[in-house]
Amino acid sequence: MTYYYVGDIPHEVLTVLPELNGVPQELHGNDTAEVTATNPSGTEITTLTAEVHGNAIEVTFPESSIFTEAGIYTIVCIIDHTEHHATVAATQVDPVRIVADDTSAEWATLAITRSQWIDSRTIDDDVLYEILQVAKTQVLDYAPALAAAAAVPTHYRMAQISQARNIYNGSIVDATNGDIGSDTFTIRPFPLDWQIKQLLRPRRGVPVTG
What we know:
Distance between the termini: 62 Å
Number of domains: 2
Shape: elongated
Order of helices and strands: EEEEEEEEEEEHHHH
Structural class: alpha+beta
Helix content: 10-25%
């Protein structure tokens, strides 16, 4: 798994083993590759370069950071198949998704989540990131509204991670038999349970008078 932080300038190349519909693609000696990226806002980035080495595509990042905002960046490689110095076919392979995390935020990062929820270390970066964003939205919808520029309370972040765990576990359960398996994973809406609600809106004891 590879992820970066906002502002990072990777010096190592990103090695892409090209697949199409999940099937590995064979590269040939004369093949070349083109690469573009799309940031979380949908803006195309054309400053990356790509070279074919053996049966892999090596993507090189530019000298200025492309990771200007937090979110998922989509790397798209196109293989140009050439014969006699002429392109005879061009094939786009399955995109690669890379997370740029934001350590300046007070919500859960991938690193914080994996330190507190051990099983999340087996979840792909992009999937875990999206689950955390869904959980964050649900927490904000239920929790008391924060004042402008207020710090995010610790229990909000804890609730986010707990809800992310519930979303993930609920999404990999086979509804026909209750078995858990990542092969059937899809993100489904999952309501906050009573423990998370109590974490966000704790019930106050009624004072006894008399």
